Amino acid sequence: MPSLRSIARNSRRHNSRAAKSHWIYATDEVLELYGITPNTLTAWKKQGLPAIRGVTDLYLGQDLNAFHTWYRRQKSRPLTLTEVYCVHCKQSHQLQINSYRIERNEADSPRLIMECPITGGDAYKFISPGEIDLIQREADLNSRNQEAHYNVDRLGSKTAIFPSVDAKTKNSDNFLIRRDYQIYLMGAEGFSQKTVIAALRHIAQFDNFTAHHNYSAITRDTVIAFKRALEAKRSTGTSDQCAASTIVHTLLDLKKFFHWLETVAPAKPMPKGLSIYFAPSRELSALAAVREEDRTTPSLEQVRTMILAMPAENFVQKRDQALLAFMLISGVRISALLTLQLQHIDLERRSIRQDPRVVKTKNSKAMQTAWFPVGDDIEAIFINWIAGLQTIHKNHSTPLFPRATDPIRRERSPDEIPPLLDQGTVRKIIKRACATVKLPYFNPHAIRRTLALLGNDLCNTAKLRKAWSQNLGHEHVATTDHYYAKLDIDEQLAAFDDIRTNVLRHDAHELVRLLPQLTAKQIAAITQVARGYTEADVLA
């Protein structure tokens, strides 16, 4: 029986989204990413996986993903009637006599279950009632039809070659420079992988525009033409329309890259002063600073209404409701949300310990976060979720919001509790919840802006404002005010209505203060005006 390591390696090898698209991987990084041996990687290259030769072979993430998508399609085939696919070892297995069973129930279709000969766990597939007799007859005879034999033979074929068109057009010199820049941003500048990937994506965009010309051959006219091409994408009539902020970020990343080429990079001499031509125009920078319409910030009552209206009948529904309740209670970022564990929650003190050794906080900052006062009913949803989770899983490292697992996987590995990993899942949860109460969709980060605006209403001293800002993970109150607590137009106009009301109240208070100093005739005149007389009537 293969080792657990080989099983895990086999399950990762077929992941067509394991690599970051614009990340450049060295050989040892590819081996670690997929858990494979050098011989396997050599076989992949023989089948067409593009590699750039250097001190070590280099691989672009999107090439790795495209290769595995192609590889999976080459190997995919329909299961025969008497075959079952195991999700653990990633292989299909033929039924043998006395090695399978069929489970029937009223709620679901019958399930054909067999023991995987590699992992020893159960593998299953759903079948129709009409197939039961046919399966039993085929399994007892241990026979396969001609098509099944053809499919199995085709599965083992290694004659196909990955048709990589991009590999022929890549500039190996540019590729090696981009790898050096990737190492520089991570090692010398200390940027996160997410930030580095964004910069690499913009550099790849420029490479495609120049048809992969050497960086040393780039001229001022090339840069200006690229900027014009980006500006053209602002038009609403284009299919690849870009926002002003996207264009500004692209140009600034390229400006930094070419400045690095001019001053730091161990490459061919670059024309001096070329980087300054990547600077975005003042008009474009001003447009990029304008708040975009899709940055919807819901009110506290809207978020509360949405959460309380969510269904909570089964495990997934309860988890989704508790997840949004926790986002409102804590204001944590989405990356931290998906990495928190039970051990980080202190119900007694109503606080969250964000330990950067486990939790993905911004800039790996350690934080102690108190629960925001958003309502006892919202807190109760989260507390009930924690209580239910603790009855199922006693381990303190249990993910705060686990993934739903199928019964067979849970029965085989009861201690394995996979967390939610995809941020897109959280966005889908919010989208469904918004649709339930007919609210416009807002992104997960918008809840932090909701809490920042709530702080404006509740915090009337400098100490309280500092505590509120610090609870959001900000070192300076100005960060909260500048980036999170901006009012939208409706709130701004409503605030000025309040200001006008306050002015009238101020005048009324001033009048009350002056009353003791007025003569009887002056008081009578003011009284007549208040009762509706015109100024002419009063003077008469």
From TrEMBL:
The keyword DNA-binding applies. PROSITE patterns: TYR_RECOMBINASE. One of its GO terms (molecular function) is DNA binding. One of its GO terms (biological process) is DNA integration. This is Tyr recombinase domain-containing protein. Keywords: DNA integration, DNA recombination, DNA-binding. Belongs to the 'phage' integrase family. Residues 293-497 form the Tyr recombinase domain. It holds the Pfam family Phage_int_SAM_1. The keyword DNA-binding applies. InterPro entries: DNA_brk_join_enz (IPR011010), Integrase-like_cat_sf (IPR013762), Integrase_catalytic (IPR002104), Integrase_recombinase_N (IPR010998), Integrase_SAM-like_N (IPR004107), Tyrosine_recombinase_XerCD (IPR050090).
